[in-house]
Structure formats: structure tokens, C-alpha cells
TrEMBL record:
Comp. bias intervals (Polar residues): 1-27
Membership in a protein family: Belongs to the CotF family.
InterPro entries associated with the record: Ferritin-like, Spore_coat_CotF-like
Protein name in UniProt: Spore coat protein
Organism: Bhargavaea beijingensis
């Protein structure tokens, strides 16, 4: 996904108005460097959290999700490090994360105990673990999006942009897992209210252009 940009990056010339020609390895703006640093730190944080939580997970389904997602995150991290250091196409292009399960949701609310911060490590459970991992993917999606918007290197920008839907997909998988076990409940509006909102917009005109 990250390769084939229509030109050989090695033959592209970049110029710094103060120092002259810029090599491909240094084809990064200052803002980009700080933002990618933030993304890589966020990725490490998510993987470290998964490593720490893995021995405490109980549900085999959650453990399977954690293991598959960790392998994918590790590959994504290595791809970004590769292209950020070289400024060129990474040896391993970005892949698309695929969930193992379906996308069925249970809507509605049922009575449950109010949530509150844990008072001791013994309270750690699958609900908390899946929540920690979900937060890591949300942070990753936000960081990759912000960095991609400020990135000048075309390869790094594409790797960051390709990473956003993967973060979303992994977060979605964990959300479905939480919903299935009633850790995350999804309320719905009354049908007439939902219909009112859904019908509040109409298609734009088909003529095209502004008059």
C-alpha cells in the first residue's frame, strides 16, 4: 500500500533554502519529525500496555485478539521506523488489519454497577484490559491523523495515512468484544427521533459547480 508513488524517490531533489540540497534520508520537516516521534511513542505505549496486560487476561477470545493485534502493531511500528529513517519506501509495506469476528452489535442499556477507578491491582479484569487496549488504538488513530496532516515526506505521509484505518479497525474489534460482554453498552434513540435525524438531510443538487 505504501509503495509505487509514480516516481523514484531516490531521484527526487529537495532543497533547503539555507543549506542547499537535501538528501532523501533527511526529507522531513521539523513539525513532521516531532509528530512522527509522537506517533512512534504512542505505538510503543500501546504495545507495552498489551505486553503488561497479556498475563492477566482470562478470556481466550480476548487473548486471541490481543495476540493478533500485537503482531500487527509490531509490523506497523517497524514499517514506520523503516521509512522514517530512510525517507524512502519501507521494505515491508503497510498491511490492512482484518478482524476475525463479525460486526454484530447489541443495542440498549441494562442496569449495571457504576464504574469507578480501581482501588487495587486485584480488581484488574478483562473489561479493564480491553478498555486499556481500546484507548491505545484511539490514541494511535488521533496521533497518526495529526501527523499525516503535517508530513512532507510522501512515503511517511502515506504510511501514516494507511495506519489510521488500521487503528480504527482494531479499536472497532475491541469495541464489539466489549459490547458482546456488556462492558460497553450502546443506547439508541426512540425510532421517531432516529428517523427525524436520518431524514434531516437531502442530497446535494446534481448540476455540479456553483452558480
Amino acid at each position: 500500500m505504501t509503495q509505487n508513488f509514480g516516481q523514484d524517490p531516490q531521484n527526487v531533489t529537495h532543497t533547503n533554502m539555507h543549506t542547499g540540497q537535501v538528501g532523501q534520508q533527511m526529507n522531513h520537516g521539523g513539525h513532521e519529525a516531532f509528530d512522527v516521534h509522537e506517533v512512534l511513542s504512542t505505538m510503543i505505549g500501546a504495545m507495552d500496555m498489551s505486553t503488561l496486560m497479556r498475563p492477566h487476561a482470562q478470556d481466550p477470545e480476548l487473548i486471541d485478539i490481543m495476540d493478533r493485534q500485537y503482531r500487527f502493531m509490531q509490523q506497523s511500528y517497524n514499517t514506520l521506523v523503516d521509512c522514517f529513517k530512510s525517507g524512502t519506501d519501507p521494505q515491508m509495506p503497510t498491511q490492512s488489519y482484518k478482524m476475525a469476528g463479525g460486526n454484530d452489535w447489541v443495542y440498549g442499556m441494562k442496569q449495571s454497577q457504576p464504574k469507578k477507578p480501581m482501588q487495587s491491582p486485584q480488581e484488574l479484569n478483562d473489561a479493564a484490559i480491553s478498555g486499556f487496549l481500546l484507548s491505545g488504538h484511539k490514541a494511535g488513530a488521533t496521533a497518526c491523523t495529526a501527523a499525516a496532516l503535517e508530513t512532507t515526506n510522501p512515503v511517511v505521509r502515506r504510511v501514516l495515512a494507511d495506519s489510521v484505518p488500521n487503528c480504527i479497525e482494531m479499536a472497532y474489534e475491541l469495541s464489539i468484544y466489549q459490547n458482546k460482554h456488556h462492558y460497553y453498552q450502546v443506547p439508541q434513540l426512540a425510532e421517531q427521533d432516529m428517523q427525524a435525524i436520518m431524514n434531516a438531510y437531502a442530497p446535494a443538487g446534481s448540476q455540479g459547480g456553483m452558480q
